[in-house]
Each structure stands twice: as structure tokens, then as C-alpha cells.
Amino acid sequence: MQSPIKRSVSIITVCVALALLCGACASFGPKPWEKDLMARKEMQLNLHPLQTAAEEHIYFSKEASSGGRGFAGGGCGCN
Amino acid sequence: MQLKKKRAGQIRESLATFSASLLTATIALHADAANAQQEYYNPEYGVRNDNFGPGIAYTELGAALLVYKESGGRVQAIEPATDLSVHGPDGQLLTFDLVADAVSGATPNGAVPSDQTQTFVTPVKIRGASTGGGTTTVTSASGGSTIIHLPSTPGQVTTSARQYTVAANLLPMDKGFHDHRLAFSFGYEQPIGGISLVSFGGGYSQEQDYRAITGNVRIAQTFNAGNTTVSLALNTELDSSFPYGGVPTPLTAMNGQWKTPSSRDKTQAGFVFGLTEAMARRWLMELDYSYDAQSGYMNDPYRVISVVDHVTGEPTSTLYENRPNKRTSQSLFWDNKFDLDPAITDLSLRYYRDSWGITSKTAELSERINLSSSMYFEPSARWYQQSSANFFHSFLVGGQPLPTYASSDTRLENFTSLTYGLKLGVQLSGRTEVYVRGGYYQQTGNGHPSDAFGQLADQNLFAGSKAAFVFLGYTWDFH
């Protein structure tokens, strides 16, 4: 098992890395007049939430891992 | 989890009827209205030239049906679902989700196969059953289970139990598995002051033997001309498990007696730190780090593990499993969407690790290819690999000290899974879409571990599954 200190350090490291990434992202991205493609519905990261939820439910019931896109756990007793 | 066949059948039929009604009624009722809104759709550019979006109040309605079936007469499920999203003019969003499912079929009980017939006994409650001698055959989907009458012992609650046998060289499975679930969730979000989005939500899920209550809050801030969003979400969950037959004492022999306590709880808390970034005109990405801590009862109350003879490998007894009552997990999820006109590529990667010693890697790729302005297909593939939990054992060896924790659950062992899928979607109008997705899921693992000996060396000890599923969905946007 991971020690609490080691776990805390790894969490903080990841958060700091993400925060730095956020700062770096501040200069990225399309200009407002270049967002025509991004505005299309099919460019949504989770276009069909019901389908995503159903498939994550399948994987949650058959595998040890859960979460990533959202919270871990499935709100059910299938695993 | 255990239901009589008739009642389980009624539930399945009701769910099937409800699902069909939901889909057909939704489509029929809204087809005219959708057609009336056709004018907003611009087929020349293949996009929704509509006024649905920021600053406009509109509603999205979705309905779906999942049919899932594992090979070998194992688990099958039918799951209808619906969701409603109401968008306000100032960034408000109210969502409701409703999901039901009915599950049945055979499920591995965790014991190893043997070259001899094996017998297992579990609790059962028989209304009006005689407490006399003899046996009663259960004519149910449990496939040849019999009701036996237990000898009186001090403190026993029942005198009956369900017994099932497994033929030689077959994976032990309990064919009496039935369950149904109803889950409801909601959420609300809106901008508050200088914060781009504040949201909260909750959910409730009820099964025959399990209940889950969830709650979450989230804040998100968008900047860099709308290209960057960072968010922090907190989640909590309270689960209660009340297994049929009571909560078994870990690492004690499987038996047909009713157990105490009747229920145990589990709590969970976690957070997700997210970053969504429009990287370029054709590239959108999301990066999430999540952390979760669970505490409480995490055993599978129906799952057992075999104790085998140290020479022959023959099962000599069957014990209820035991898992640690604490678990923390972390995952890093990276999703990318690329517009490669006329295709849209979605590539996601996930790395997961937890305090039970499990690490996993997931990669998923889908390619949406537009056949016309209103039709597309989308092949997809998913690869998943996990290592085993540090307390996973396919079996325990007799004569050796019992470990503190032990589980033979396939979901906790080293395996790889592959999923292949194909989706076809059609826009019936600028406002409605119907899509169907078929998929095949297959787990592969090591059925002949190096520590298998005696008769175990000739058995396939991997209990992984293969499954096919079909998902039918419908969405409608309207003012």
C-alpha cells in the first residue's frame, strides 16, 4: 500500500503539473473567427451521454478500474 | 439479487415494453415538431444552422436502450434510459436522468473447476415451505437447484437452503442470479458572479440488494477567449449493501444459513481536477486527474474462493472472500478530438492505479465518418489492460495459514480486454437523431497460472467473459 505522505506528494505533483499546463494553455487556441468547426455538435467530447454512461456501466461491472472521465464508482452494486 | 423466475421475467418484460414505448412514443410525438424546425437545418454545409447554443433557451431529450448478453448463458441485461437537459438563456442547465435495468443469468461464484462434481449451498427463503425432510426441486432459471432442509442448529434462522451442483471440469457458476435496478439523477448549473459555472447534483440508485446515494458539486472557470476551462468537482457517495441471505463472515465456509448483519455500508469521497482546451481550430482536448477514497464494506457477498488439497489440487472447502475495507485510487484521463474533415477522430487514454495494487491502462479510438450531411458511421476500438490486486488468489492451498485478504474475483486479476464497436447515426431532421451501436467485448487472461498444480493444472482458471451488446439511442432538441 502507498504511504499517506507518498500519496499526498503524488497528488500535489499532478495538480501542480496540471496548473502549469493551464498556464501554458493560456496562449493556445483558435481565434474567435476560427471556431466554426469547434462549435459543431459532433465536436462535443461527450456527444451522447446516455451511450457513454451505459458503456461505462458495462466496463465498471467487468473491470477493476473506474472513473477518469468523471468520478470513480458506479453508483451501483455491480462491482 | 435472488428473485423468483416469474417475477424476474415480469420485470424484464415490463422493462422491454417500457423501453419500446419510450422510444416509439418519443419519436412519434416529436416527429412533426422536429420537421417544423427543419428550416433551421442547412444541409448545404452539413451542419445545424440553428439557434441552439449559448444565450438561447432550449431543451434536449434523449432516450436509449441497451441490450447486453454474455456468451455461455452468462449475464444478460436490458437497460432503458432517458435524459432531459433544459438550457436557460443565461447559461443555466437543469438535467434529469432515469435508468432502469434488469439483469439475469449465470455468474461465476469464484470457486475453481474440478475434475469431480462440486456442490454449493446458499441461503434461500421459501414461503410456506415444509420444514420436514426431503428435498424440493426448484424449477427456475437457476437450472436444477434444489431446496434442501438443514438440520437444526442453535441460532439458525431458517431450515432451508438452495443447493446447486456443477459438473466436472466446468467453471462453477450460480445460475440463480437475478437483479433489477432503478436509478435517478439530477444536476443544475449556472454562472455565478465571476465564476463561469457552478453546479451541483445528486443521484439515487436502488437494487434488490444494493442502494447508492451520490452528491456532487463543481466549479469551472473559462478564460483565454473561451479556449481554456479549468474545473474542480467534488463527489461523495454512500452505498448500502444488503445481500440476500445476509452479510457472510469473511473467510468462513460457504453455507446455507442466514447471516448477520443484514447490511453493511460503504462511503466514498473524491475529486476531479479537469482542464479542457481548444488547442487549435481542429483539435479539442480534455485532461482530467481524479482521486477517490472508499471506506467500508467492499466484499462481494456472493463470491467464494476454493481451498484445495495441497497435493491433488482438489477443492476441499469453499470460503467467503475478504477484501480490505479501504481503497484509494487515482486516474489520469486524456481525451482528444480532431476534426479531420470529413472524419472526426476521438482518441482517449487513461492510466489508473489504486491502493489494492491494481494498475490499468486504457486506450480508446473512434472515427466518425460522415457519409452525407445527415448520416455517419463510426467504427471504434478499446483496449484495456489491468494488473491483479495484491490479494488476488485463484485458490487457497489447504494446510497453509489463511491470508488476511483473499478474493478470486476475475475483475481483480491480471487480464486484457478488447472492445470493437460500430455505430450508425442518422439525422431525421435538423433537430433529431437516431443512432444504433453494436459492440463486442472480450476478456483474455491466463487460465493456466504457474502456481496451478494437481488437477488444477488441467483446468482453465480464468473466468473472464465475452459479451455482445446493442445500444439504440434517440435525441431531440427543441425550444
Write a brief caption for the model.
The complex is a heterodimer of chains A (79) and B (479). Chain A contains two helices and no strands.
Structure explained in plain terms:
The complex is a heterodimer of chains A (79) and B (479). Chain A is mainly alpha-helical and 79 residues long. Chain A is built from two helices and no strands. With 479 residues, chain B is mostly beta strands. In chain B, 7% of the residues lie in helices and 54% in strands. Chain B contains one helix and 23 strands. The longest helix of chain B has 32 residues, at 5-36. Chain B is elongated. The two termini of chain B are 42 Å apart. Mean pLDDT of chain B is 88; it is low at 1-6, 26-49 and 129-142. At the A-B interface, helix 1 and helix 2 of A face strand 1, strand 2, strand 3, strand 8 and strand 9 of B.
- Within CATH, the superfamily of chain B carries the name monomeric porin ompg
General shape of chain A: flat
Q: What is the 3D shape of chain B?
A: elongated
Give the N-to-C terminal Cα separation of chain B. Answer: 42 Å
Number of helices of chain B: 1
SS content category of chain B: mainly beta
Low-confidence stretches of chain B: 1-6, 26-49, 129-142
Task: Tell me the total number of β-strands of chain A.
Answer: 0
User: What is the subunit organization of this protein?
Assistant: heterodimer
Query: For the residues shown, what is the average pLDDT of chain A?
Result: 80
Helix content of chain B: under 10%
Tally of helical segments of chain A: 2
The CATH topology of chain B is what? Answer: Porin
Q: Report the largest inter-chain contact.
A: A-B, 55 and 99 residues
Radius of gyration of chain B: 26 Å
